[in-house]
């Protein structure tokens, strides 16, 4: 705040020109843009500025709805409650009881309102607003802290509830990427020096499989080929060496392939009678299937 007041004062007295602020920022942005584009171009193997591509597709072309849509107020009744947990009602109270706090959080609230107008919504789009809302929650807790022991205990109980919920969510997230587990097992089973074609089904591609996990797809391992093309026929897919498919799809390939790995995904919670009294439920989500024509015998440990 001291630095901001000084900058505003210098601008008001015309001792500091606007270009003296903008030029260093522009120069820094240019350098970082060159660095980022160079890294992304190397990783993706063609000249690209990913952020600009996404902005153009989602905003200018307004095609973000192709990836799914959510109701107008989804950020407020679903995304933020899951992200902030008990801190959300505390931040609301902080804003209602102090106009200065409301003024402080108004940029974040405006940001959330504007992003709510876009039909395609994801929590990661608005995470930048969470720290400012957490400040409002902290301000309210500070007021409670000075009101007596019972209020301090309530604040501590809120923090403890957040920690417990975060632990549960962490367990769910840990088991929500079976495609990544399948890729780890795949690369530990087949050496990159063998000729291998891998078909990656739609579910696997959306739940853990990424270009960064394709360890054998480099300038030195041209023998590997990862296939993510959608709408391929069953007869075409049967020609690939390894398949990462859903259990419901596996039956179509049992004549030509055998299951060598089963990978699980989070499927809810069970209440138990022993500590910690909660157990994570999992279900089979992805099968790794090996072509029966391959000579190599493999046994893959499921996740």
Explain this structure.
Helix content is 51%, strand content 14%. It is built from 12 helices and 5 strands. Strands 2-1-3-5-4 form a 5-stranded mixed β-sheet. Helix 5 (87-97) crosses helix 7 (130-145). It is globular and about 75 Å long.
Annotation field: number of helices:
12
Chain-averaged pLDDT: 85
Give the helix proportion (percent range): 40-55%
Low-confidence stretches: 296-303
Strand content: 5-15%
Descriptive labels:
disordered C terminus, 303 residues, 51% helix, alpha/beta
Question: Quick summary of this structure?
Answer:
The chain is built from twelve helices and five strands. With 303 residues, it is α/β, with parallel strands linked by helices.
Give the SSE map:
Elements: H1 2-12, H2 18-44, H3 50-60, H4 74-84, H5 87-97, H6 99-116, H7 130-145, H8 149-174, H9 178-189, E1 196-200, H10 202-206, E2 224-227, H11 234-237, E3 242-245, H12 247-250, E4 257-271, E5 278-291
Parallel strand pairs: 1-2, 1-3
Antiparallel strand pairs: 3-5, 4-5
